Amino acid sequence: MARTSAVAGAFACVLSVGIASGCAFVPSDPDLPALGLRVDAGVLSVMVPHCPDDPVVSAEVAAQSDATQEPPSWSADGFTGDATLGIPLDASHWTSATGQYSGLTTADVTIYMKRGQYGTSVRPPRTLADLQDLPPGTFDVDGVEKRAADYLKETAKAFPC
Q1: Which one of 14, 52, 82, 118 has the minimum C-beta count within 10 Å?
Q2: Helices marked H in 5-107 — which ranges?
Q3: Domains parsed from the chain with CATH numbers
Q4: What number is the average pLDDT over the span 121-132?
Q5: What's the pLDDT at 69?
Q6: How far is CA 67 from each of CA 6, 61, 73, 119, 139, rounded to the nearest angstrom?
Q7: What are the E-state strand segments in the chain?
């Protein structure tokens, strides 16, 4: 996940031109990592890169047909779980949750962190049903099964906090 937006970086660079010379416009936003997904007993869980000082704030699941409409099919605030184990999108891991996504076959998922957000989509030909029955502790990351610990290690290396 990008920690500083290119727009903000460019704005800061423009502001600093009068103060310091040699400001370069270098892209500061690397490609975001793919997210891990799994479904257990109808509950969608998401694995995102972990930074201890960037906690999960809220989450949304939207049907692709209503992804630009408010409200989303399901939303929650106040994550109470351990994000290093995955972020279950069910009422028991949030202080407040509304809606449901049980009837969806495809979806757009957004996880909001203190300093930004991560998003992913499950689109045809894949469906949420394809994310069921994964081995314990593994997530589907762009069609590849990865253990949560391996995902976190890889993303920490590629996207340090």
Answers
A1: 52
A2: 6-16
A3: 1-30 (no CATH), 31-158 (2.60.40)
A4: 93
A5: 62
A6: 25, 8, 9, 12, 23
A7: 36-40, 43-47, 56-62, 74-79, 87-88, 94-99, 107-113, 116-122, 138-141, 144-147
